[in-house]
Specification:
The chain has one domain. Helices cover 35% and strands 9% of the residues. It contains one helix and four strands, in the order αββββ. It is rod-shaped, with a radius of gyration of 20 Å. 16% of the residues are buried.
């Protein structure tokens, strides 16, 4: 009887881990699709004010772009713009504050 309980507990743990793994992969896929479209190319929220910071020729972009965290799927808007490395986004989960140029997002 004790062996059967051990097997069912192990099976339940495996199913939960598998479910968590699939959920994490699905969240990452959703974030990748969103980020490829709205982080640098199209504006998520139209009509936002221009960002603070530096820019080429003094023209700062609007703050309507957005980045989605691949871990929690929360949407963030840029906080500033830099002439050297572009839009800066806030920190979320394990992603540090700063640009998103080296995160596999289409630029």
């Amino acid at each position: 009887m004790n062996m059967w309980r051990l097997i069912t507990t192990a099976l339940q743990l495996w199913r939960k881990e598998e479910s968590d793994r699939k959920d994490k992969a699905e969240r990452a896929a959703i974030a990748r699709a969103f980020n490829n479209r709205y982080t640098f190319h199209k504006q998520w929220a139209a009509g936002k004010d221009r960002l603070p910071g530096t820019a080429m020729y003094g023209v700062l972009p609007n703050g309507g772009y957005a980045w989605m965290c691949p871990e929690c799927n929360q949407i963030h808007h840029p906080t500033e713009c830099s002439v050297m490395d572009g839009l800066h986004y806030p920190r979320c989960c394990s992603t540090p504050m700063g640009n998103r140029l080296h995160y596999g997002i289409r630029t």
